[in-house]
Design a protein that fits this description.
The complex is a heterodimer of chains A (about 260) and B (about 375). In chain A, strand 2, helix 8 and strand 3 form a beta-alpha-beta unit. Chain A is elongated and about 80 Å long. In chain A, helix 2 crosses helix 5. Chain A is of the alpha/beta class. Chain B has one domain. Helices cover about 75% and strands about 0% of the residues of chain B. The N and C termini of chain B lie far apart (about 55 Å). Classes of the chains: A alpha/beta (about 260), B mainly alpha (about 375). Chains A and B meet through helix 1, helix 3, helix 5, helix 6 and strand 1 of A and helix 7, strand 1, helix 8, helix 11 and helix 12 of B. Strand 1 of chain A pairs antiparallel with strand 1 of chain B.
Chain lengths: ~260, ~375
């Protein structure tokens, strides 16, 4: 039980971002305490003080965590219990109450505190200037436009960089493996993935045999990907190049 | 042009008309266009759950087309009922309640004058600041792409429904066929995105990444506006509401303290059902608790609020299966606390009854997930 409690503490710390020196939760805890002491309205007290406190108690309760994980069959989403706290609404309400009539100066101080304790979302490494209306890398769009069949579906082997995007643009392209192989903690095994991504140098005969077992109509490789023997010696031809990606077409499929 | 008309019809006109139904069953002084639009969205999503979930579970071929057909009939009937209620209530009474009508109906000039007066009064600067922050968030949502690995599942599910007309029968990650993954299959929000995409004729990925943020971000702030109104009442609203909105907007922008917060989800994966659950549905439950159990005169008509509460519970199901459990828990805890604080056990029964759709959803979930044991 103590171990489960400590796990909850770690989840709480990770959620609040304390390990990265973010202290927005400090504003929330201050707001909650302030409302504990000052809020008189019964409904607001129930919604903004008592219920969040109960949720916090439940969150840290090992027995509750055991039941939650058992029911949901998933321990990775336990942090979502903290969504019920609605920290920003409670904090904003408490801050405004605290400001009283000093609204302008209070707002300025609140803004500074939020900016100082929080983290600017648009600084995230996952956000970049959109290259097109799909919000997908243009290279992925260009590659799919080049190889997309006029009718039916084809299987295409693409490098990990493109795995997430290809099928967001067209579901006519099928993949031997998908995003599930890129999540290390899931620890799945896939022979094609091993041959394509894990091998330091692609072992061409095995690789080609695997691609033809699907069969992959096209193989996309980064131009600097090391390969024992060129694919062109195994019935593939270079179909085109988009940026750093070289597209190979399996010519033997047309002969079958 | 057809695309824009299609988007406006399904994302503004239809929800607004549906929202007229609950608005008809609340006190006149609580009727506002914002309330109507929010109610309409929750009503529309509740209808989508009723249309799509049975189709996912029990229709094997072309289940998306079947769900869409049922949804179109239900939404058009509901919208027509809303318009009929509007017509019956006479002019704009159902939309504007007893707001200052001369400001609204006197034509463009007085309207602009009223707007100018409103902006220039003491809280005008705060309102301008809020709208600047909102505009900034919308600009970022359109001009910048946010990478999220889950899109390889959710966005592709929408695209499969749009391109192949089936729901949850094709593995989104690779394209192979698959059995029903109950945990994801009951949360049909990506299918609603697909529905909008098909009706408007826009690629589902564009609808997810561009159109949805343009709709869901303002809608979420509309909800925060209504929460602010409920918190500060009519007396203190004028000064406090814009400050509340500015602080809420800043919390969203600086709330990225980890990848897990609702604020991060709100601005980086706006189009995913779980983000909608965290930023829109859970706050909506809090909003309705404030309205249903607030200080307002108990004799006021609240049937519309109860209708809306049931719709919000149902809308949770389309966002995320886990959210159903969370929202039910929030409802149970808050109702329990309110029943104790107000010494009114009737509240527990009332809120319990409003959670029946969630109970049915969870029963279906458990049945489908564990039916192999039977």
């Amino acid at each position: 039980m103590w171990g489960i409690f400590l796990e909850s503490v770690v989840i709480f710390k990770n959620f609040m971002g304390w390990h990265e020196n973010h202290f927005l939760a400090g504003i929330y805890i201050f707001a909650l305490l302030y409302l504990w002491l000052t809020e008189k309205d019964k409904t607001k007290r129930a919604v903004f003080v008592y219920t969040p406190t109960l949720i916090l108690l439940l969150f840290f309760c090992p027995l509750f965590r055991k039941v939650f994980v058992r029911i949901m069959e998933d321990s990775e989403t336990y942090y979502r219990l903290l969504w019920l706290l609605q920290m920003s609404i409670v904090s904003a309400y408490a801050l405004i109450r605290l400001m009283g009539k000093h609204r302008r100066i209070g707002l300025a101080v609140a803004c500074l505190a939020i900016a100082a304790c929080g983290d600017y979302v648009y600084d995230s490494g996952h956000i970049s200037r959109a290259e097109n209306a799909y919000h997908l890398p243009q290279e992925a769009v260009d590659i799919v436009d080049m190889i997309k069949p006029e009718e039916g579906r084809i299987t295409v082997l693409v490098p990990a960089d493109l795995i997430y995007y290809v099928r967001q643009y067209s579901t006519d392209i099928e993949l031997p493996y998908g995003r599930e192989m890129l999540i290390a903690r899931w620890d799945y095994y896939h022979a094609m993935y091993e041959a394509m991504e894990k091998a330091e140098v692609i072992d061409t005969p095995t690789f080609v045999e695997l691609t033809r077992s699907y069969p992959c109509a096209y193989v996309v490789l980064k131009e600097d990907r090391e390969i024992a023997e060129p694919l062109t010696e195994y019935g593939f031809s270079v179909y085109g190049q988009v940026g750093e990606f070289v597209i190979y077409k399996d010519m033997t499929l047309e002969q079958r | 042009m057809t695309m824009i008309i299609g988007l406006l019809f399904w994302l503004v006109v239809i929800p607004f008309c549906i929202g007229l139904i609950p608005a008809n069953f609340i006190a006149e002084d609580e009727r506002r266009p914002g309330f109507i639009l929010l109610s309409g969205y929750f009503g529309m999503w509740a209808l989508f759950e009723v249309s799509a979930v049975p189709a996912v579970l029990w229709v094997e071929y072309d289940n998306f087309k079947a769900a869409s057909a049922v949804f179109i009939v239900l939404t058009l009937l509901s919208a027509a009922a809303g318009v009929w209620l509007l017509y019956r209530s006479g002019k704009a009474g159902l939309i504007f309640g007893n707001m200052e009508r001369h400001d609204i109906r006197g034509g463009a000039k007085p309207c602009m004058a009223a707007l100018g007066k409103w902006l220039l009064h003491a809280a005008g600067i705060e309102w301008l600041l809020f709208f600047a922050l909102l505009g900034f968030q919308l600009y970022k949502a359109v001009a910048y792409a946010s990478f999220d690995g889950d899109d390889a599942y959710y966005v592709v599910e929408s695209l499969i429904a749009q391109e192949a007309g089936v729901m949850y029968r094709i593995l989104p990650l690779t394209g192979g066929s698959t059995g029903l993954d109950v945990r994801h299959a009951l949360a049909v929000f990506p299918m609603w995105v697909a529905f909008v995409s098909v009706r408007a004729g826009v690629h589902a990925t564009i609808v997810s990444h561009v159109v949805m943020p343009l709709v869901l971000i303002p809608l979420t702030y509309l909800l925060y506006y209504e929460i602010g109104r409920a918190l500060f009442g009519t007396v203190f609203c004028r000064e406090n509401l814009p400050v509340f909105m500015v602080i809420m907007a800043l919390f969203q922008i600086f709330g990225n303290v980890s990848i897990y917060t609702t604020e991060t989800f709100f601005l980086t994966r706006t189009w995913q059902g779980k983000a909608v659950a965290g930023s829109l549905v859970i706050p909506a439950v809090i909003w309705l608790f404030l309205l249903l159990c607030g200080k307002a005169d108990e004799k006021k008509d609240r049937r519309g609020l109860w209708m809306l509460f049931v719709c919000v519970q149902m809308a949770t199901g389309i966002c995320s299966s886990i959210a159903v459990f969370l929202v039910s828990m929030l409802t149970a805890l808050t109702a329990f606390v309110l029943a104790c604080v107000r010494r009114n056990l009737k509240l527990l029964l009332q809120f319990g009854a409003a959670c029946i759709p969630s109970a049915v959803y969870m029963a279906v979930y458990v049945y489908m997930a564990y039916s192999y044991l039977l």
